[in-house]
Amino acid sequence: MSVVGREYKRRLRFFYLTLLFSSILFVFTLIISLTIGSAGIGVEWIARWLMFRLGFANGNSINANILAIVDLRLTRTLTAFIIGVMLGVSGVILQACSRNPLADPFILGLSSGALTFLAIAMLISPALVYLRPIAITIAFIGALAGLTLTLMLFEATGGTSTSLILSGIAVSTMFGGLSLILSYIVYAKYKTHIIIYTLGSVNLATRSDLTVMVVVLSIGIILALLLSKPLNALIYGDEYAQQLGYSPRKIIRYGSIIASFLTGTAVAFTGIIGFIGLIVPHITRFIVGHDHRLVIPASIFIGGLILCYADLIVRLVAITGFGEIPIGAITSILGGPFLAYLIVRNLKA
Questions:
Q1: What is the per-residue DSSP string for 176-224?
Q2: Distance of alpha carbon 172 from alpha carbon 165, whole angstroms
Q3: How many CB atoms lie within 10 A of CB 24?
Q4: Per-residue pLDDT tens for 86-98?
Q5: Tens digits of per-residue pLDDT, 96-133?
Q6: Which residues contact 45 (CB under 8 A, 6 or more apart)?
Q7: 179-185 average pLDDT score
Q8: DSSP string across 260-272
Q9: Could you tell me the pTM of the whole model?
């Protein structure tokens, strides 16, 4: 067997081990997350809740308040996991399409673009944000608009790796300012707070939203997996991709649409949560290599777990009496130094 074949088999073993370990870790994380909160609920009550939900016990075996609290925590944890997956997969696609390890939905203006369009919709009618299919469509268009502006500015400034990030920061800052202004206008007009969307919170989604999120995530993952081979070709250059029969322009266009679709949906449900799309691809590639047929499935668990643990930190801080801080603040604390490290490493390379 060739060296390449042995290396691929080794990466494949790491991939399966990663999925197995991540699955076990997810179950453990889910159980832990159901017990953490201002109301102390032990494992015994979690077991009773599970028996009730599976139909092995009647309602008399569990307190109604505990049942409601555990349901809320489950919804919150699943929301964190799903949103983490959406942002993580978006980051993988954007980094592959741009061939830039610093690319991220937050940095390239997708998140702030989605929020700006949502704020405009809320200014027209606050009810629009609660009509989830409409909100997702609006946020998707906003994310696509943000990315398009970034790419236009990127081409106009020379098309270098540094200009892409600077263009994204410029567009993200502009849309970020617009969304803040619109948020204050919405509050002044309707007395509706949407400032939390600029900070991010997995507490904004409801139990009924989970079905919509799962459907959108399934569509996004399937499309991303279909794009995995073309992405593998693209990272070796446009000429290589063309030799294999792929159009680089079409790959980038389709990738941009998928990333905008997933990012827009995430913003519609939880607001802006930055840097997950930056961190997840690097961790995933470190474990399973650069083959997107492995990177995209592995990033599902890694992205979901990272945001789940960020949410656990938020809840632990809330227990201490400081109140609930936005989850976007936690991911920014983690992502800021990570971005700085990547910038220094790329400048030295």
A1: HHHHHHHHHHHHHHH----GGGGT--TTS--TTHHHHHHHHHHHHHHHH
A2: 10
A3: 10
A4: 999 999 999 999 9
A5: 999 999 999 999 999 999 999 999 999 988 888 889 99
A6: 62, 63, 66, 70
A7: 90
A8: HHHHHHHHHHH--
A9: 0.93
Look at residue 114 and tell me if it is in a domain. Answer: yes
Q: Diameter of the chain by CA atoms?
A: 69
Identity of the residue numbered 220: G
Token pair, residue 1, equals: 């067997």
**How far apart, in whole angstroms, are the C-alpha atoms of residue 153 and residue 263?**
20
User: How far is residue 20's CA from residue 156's CA, in Å, rounded to a whole number?
Assistant: 45
CB distance 186 to 126 below 8 Å:
yes
Q: How far apart are the first and last CA of the chain?
A: 33
Number of domains in the chain: 1
Which CATH number does the domain housing residue 281 bear?
1.10.3470.10
Sign of CA pseudo-dihedral 55, 59, 62, 67: positive
Q: What is the DSSP letter of 349?
A: -
- Provide φ and ψ at 62, rounded to 5°: -145, 140
| Residue 70 forms part of a structural domain | no
Angle between helices 132-156 and 110-124 (to 10 degrees): 130
What b-and-e string marks burial along 314-332, b requiring 16 or more CB atoms within 10 Å of the CB?
Answer: bbeeeeeeeeeebbbbbbb
CB atoms within 10 A of CB 160: 11
Is residue 161 helix, strand or coil? Answer: helix
Residues spanned by the domain of 311: 76-348
Name the residue with tokens 């400032």: 195
Token duo for residue 202: 């997995």
CA distance 145 to 110: 8
